[in-house]
Amino acid sequence: MDLAQRFAAGDADAFEALFRQFQGEVYGWIVRIVRDPMAAEDLTIETFWRIHRGARRFDAARPFGPWARRIATRAAIDYLKSQPREAPAAFEPAAPAAPDAAWEREVREHTAAAFRSLPVRLRAAAALALIEERPYEEIAAALGTSVNTIKSRVFRAVRILRRRLERSGIHP
Amino acid sequence: MNEKRLQQLLQSALPPVGEAPPRDLWPAMRRRLDGAAAPPIRLAAWEWALAAVLAAAILLLPVPLAGISCLL
Fold first, then answer.
1. I want to staple A116 with a disulfide (CB 3.0 to 4.6 A). Which of A52, A86, A158, B35 is the partner?
2. Which parts of chain A sit beneath pLDDT 70?
3. pLDDT at B33 over 70
4. What angle do CA A27, B9, A121 make, to 5 degrees?
5. Of the candidates A119, A139, A164, which has an alpha carbon nearest to the alpha carbon of residue B13?
6. In this predicted model, what pLDDT tens digit does every residue of A60-102 receive, in sequence order?
7. Cβ–Cβ < 8 Å for A93, A168
8. Angle at the Cα of B50 (from B48 to B54), degrees rounded to 5?
């Protein structure tokens, strides 16, 4: 009986072995979505807690990693939904004739704020596709949806971001 | 603003985050598992009320209750 089968049968040692083997991968995936290392640590524990409770639903014939990643994605999205969403900043910067460091910093801060104000599912898709440059297939599998849905979410995220930035006078 | 430029902006505004946890998370996981193994007993309000009614019934009506238990 391999590790995954032992875990599915409720073996506590197998759970610990899987935790040690996959904690880095699960943490790495979550931190890409929530972009907060402290929250990612807590969410890694929450993910493995859900995995522990759902051991009977795990199909030992399938790989453990993608299953864990789907649960991690749901935990990360639940966390983002529980956080107060940042309102788009009312900001009317006047672009200087020649870009300077202060202007660049302001543009970055405003871009980050616009990103954090996106709806959670669009934000997760945009973080993974645009910032982390993960393949659409991988994102779709983790979010339990189709590639076309992910493409649509990224497209909508880009459109919203572009509109908000241009409204703020940011035309890089 | 094209998508590539927007992507560059996002990447500079939200720089990469560390991919590995800064510490072994197993001790924290262990605490979570141990905490769940012995959950504190919590009763709902109606459970407390039911327990109070039963206790009062035993104290106030010991003979009828004894009779019922004999019948059972």
1. A86
2. 1, 87-99, 172
3. yes
4. 50
5. A164
6. 888 999 999 999 999 999 999 998 877 665 555 555 556 677 8
7. yes
8. 115
Q: If contacts are CB pairs under 8 Å, which of residues 23-82 in chain A contact chain B?
A: 23-24, 27-28, 31-32, 35, 37, 40-41, 44-45, 48-49, 52
B10 touches chain A (CB under 8 A): yes
Q: What is the pTM of this model?
A: 0.77
Q: Could you count the other beta carbons within 10 Å of the beta carbon of residue A64?
A: 18
Token readout for A69 is 């990643």
What amino acid is encoded at A107 in this protein? V
Closest Cβ opposite residue A37 in set B5, B13, B18: B18
**DSSP track, B1-38:** --HHHHHHHHHHHSPPPPSS-SS--HHHHHHHHHHHHS
User: B-chain residues within 8 Å CB-CB of A132?
Assistant: 16
Give the separation between CA A39 and CA A44, rounded to whole angstroms.
9
The residue to which tokens 């009312």 are assigned = A90
By CA distance, what is A32's nearest residue in B?
Answer: B17
Q: Hey, are the CB atoms on A108 and B13 less than 8 Å from each other? A: yes
Q: How far is A131 from chain B (nearest CA, A)?
A: 5
